[in-house]
Design brief:
about 40% helix; 9 helices; globular; alpha+beta; 8-stranded mixed β-sheet; Alpha-Beta Plaits
């Protein structure tokens, strides 16, 4: 009967290309020796709650918690063209969120947490077991776990598969082989920052820019007027999709003098409470350009 009834049949396993995120708390064993079990549970619950909200806002799904570890997937149950970029944005925001959370944890529990994050993209087999829990199998999962293990405190490491998909959108530092506990060495790429205006795919502007002389003169005149009078001006570029709005702005930004700081802000195509997201992006870009720690400065700026 079960074979003829789709409601009673076990769910089918599927092959998907997803991005897996592993995150864990550094030196959690020390915390277990210091804290009462109930206090430790409340501490972890506070951390997991904050990180889970970040992951969900970027379209990820927390597969499970294992001890002090978070395992999240981007691309299940629904695939997006920018799942890899969403995962990295989530990882960066998790680090920023922990900076804020640590102020609370220090006031309440007299402790600050550090975390390691590893991400990797690749093919997996995914489905639900008989109890309804999701499972993942594939080399991509093992690589993501190894990257998390190899990361330094508050560092984000990504695999080559992920980097190929987001290299237009992130600033990275090739860190070379990382040694793991059992002697294995693992190649890794450390994420420094993610570009605010980056999309799931890269726009190609290789063709020569022609026309739009009137618009370029208008924008340049407004900019010079702002500089000479030390005033602000809001300029809105409107047009149908594909007419070249992004290219016009890109050409103008590229023509500015070297001392000008160009800061980008954009609303992602997903999430809630994102009305002020561009303002946060702009603050982070400006602080990076001025050589200030973007995480600490962002906290001060937003507050």
């Amino acid at each position: 009967m079960a074979e003829n009834n789709p409601e009673l049949s076990p769910p089918q396993d599927v092959r998907k290309t997803v991005t897996i995120l592993f995150a864990d708390i550094v030196d959690s064993s020390r915390l277990s020796l210091t804290f009462d079990p109930e206090a430790l549970q409340n501490l972890f619950a506070r951390y997991f709650g904050e990180m889970n909200s970040v992951i969900r806002r970027h379209g990820g799904v927390v597969e499970r918690y294992v001890g002090d570890e978070i395992i999240a997937i981007f691309g299940v149950p629904m695939l997006h063209e920018d799942d890899a970029l969403r995962a990295i944005r989530a990882a960066v925001e998790m680090c920023d969120r922990l900076v804020v959370l640590n102020d609370e944890l220090e006031a309440v529990w007299d402790v600050q947490l550090a975390q390691r994050i590893g991400l990797n993209t690749g093919e997996v087999i995914t489905g639900n077991d008989r109890q309804g829990y999701r499972f993942l199998t594939g080399e991509a999962v093992r690589v993501a776990k190894r990257l998390e293990e190899a990361a330094a405190p508050n560092e984000i490491l990504i695999g080559e598969g992920t980097h190929k998909l987001v290299r237009h959108a992130v600033s990275v530092v090739p860190s070379g082989p990382r040694a793991l506990k059992h002697g294995e060495k693992f190649p890794a790429i450390a994420v420094v920052a993610v570009s605010a205006p980056a999309t799931g795919f890269r726009r190609h502007f290789e063709a020569p820019f022609v026309g739009r002389k009137r618009e370029r003169v208008m924008i340049d005149t407004i900019f010079r007027d702002c500089v000479s009078n030390k005033t602000c001006h809001q300029l809105m570029v409107l047009g149908e999709a594909g007419v070249g709005k992004s290219r016009l702005v890109s050409e103008f930004a590229g023509s500015l003098p070297g001392e000008a700081i160009v800061a980008y802000g954009s609303c992602p195509p997903y999430g809630e409470g994102i009305a002020y997201w561009p303002l946060g992006d702009i603050l982070r870009e400006i602080t990076r350009a001025e050589g200030v720690d973007p995480r600490k400065q962002t906290v001060a700026g937003i507050a």
